[in-house]
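Lab notes, practical 5.
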Amino acid sequence: MKSESTMSSQQELVKQLNDAGQTEMAQYLAVCEAGIAQKLAAQLEQIDLEELAEIAGEQTSEESPRDYTKLQPPKAVRLKDQDDPSKIAAAREVGEQLLKEGKVAALLVAGGQGSRLGFDHPKGMFPVGPVTGNTLFQIHLEKIVARSRRYGKAIPLYLMTSPATHDETIEFLDKHDRFGMAKEDLYIFCQGTMPAIDKETNQLLLAEPDQLALSPDGHGGMLAALVKSGCLEDMNQRGIEQIYYFQVDNPLADVCEPEFLGLHHQADSEMSTQVVAKKLPEEKLGILAELDGQLQLVEYSELPAEQAAETIEDGTLKHWAGNIAVHGVKKSFLQRMSTQAGSLPWHKAIKKVPYVSAAGDTIAPESPNAIKFERFIFDLLPQAQNPMVVEVDPALRFAPVKNADGAPSDTPQAAKDALCAVHRSWLKQCGVECAEDRKIEISPLTALDADQLKEKLESQPELAKADYIND
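Output from the prediction step:
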């Protein structure tokens, strides 16, 4: 038998649903079993129904497109601008000082599963070390540990999971003692979810009789999750000023590299982003461009083919700046944005979403039937003061693991080959002869760059012969 308080709260929820236009869910709650109603009520209470009604009624970005003919390439620190040793040394010194003072944090977005890789686990657990099979998580965390040791101050890591990866990520990292990270320096927090709605009626969909059809709210959900989890407040208490943001699928990310942090800090930029030069218009990378004086990201799927193929006098692409999802972000900027409603807009995606009908039947739609909602971190760029774009060499900084081996690009084998190539180049810079096909892996705990490797080899030259240099 339901208590009066339970009935009262359910009646209030039904009223809220009706007020928000969710009449089908209101009717369903009134007739379903008490246990089902209780489970659904707990999920519905996590949803801002007024906000859902508002964004469901908004036009999609496809209905109000940007004028892509006005796009201009961004002002950027190109690779050729980084040939000046004194400028790069000055930037490195600034970044190193931030690290020595403990003012830098790392923020790792790791909510995805390895479904496209045929790997039914968090993508961070995917083995990518070319010799060892070390996982993406191990490679990234060891870089942070090594950087912390190098500068004598802990670099806290704020690691964002999704409901699908949260528990398994915690279990995995605990099992491996966080790959050397102190427990107090690793904060694992979970991004939020958003419900899917029917694209014709805007009514909420059920994945199960007692379960809403929910999906992660995008990497832009990081901002709300940082606040809700207490991580932003923890950054405040630690005196963090700058954040190095990256995604789990790129083993070449040079986590908390001082040169990038220094360039970002010198420019007094609230948000800086690394890019690689696109060679072909069909490359599946969003581009950074300026529109009406604002820096913003245009997804590759949104950019018309005509604009994507535009070239300049030297024959290179006009819209060249490919996004690799590595950002430098001022903590104070995130703090300010977290207090501004609508600072990150919702994006709609029309998808096929299986659902359960009111009669209890499971429906597998043959065509896209639902709207999913996501937020993207790059939507902060137009609101940032002094946003900056920094070009990096993809051979050294970008080898994402997205597709199973056999695909044209972004495969595990391509990432392994890229890691080997980087480590071979370090050995050559140290004066070690190295065959072009040599399989070699260097632990971040041994060296983060060629200079550090050279110091190690001076005292232990025999290490150069190993397939896995780990000392």
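Observations recorded by the TA: Residues 102 and 153 are 5 Å apart (CA to CA). The first helix runs from residue 4 to 19.
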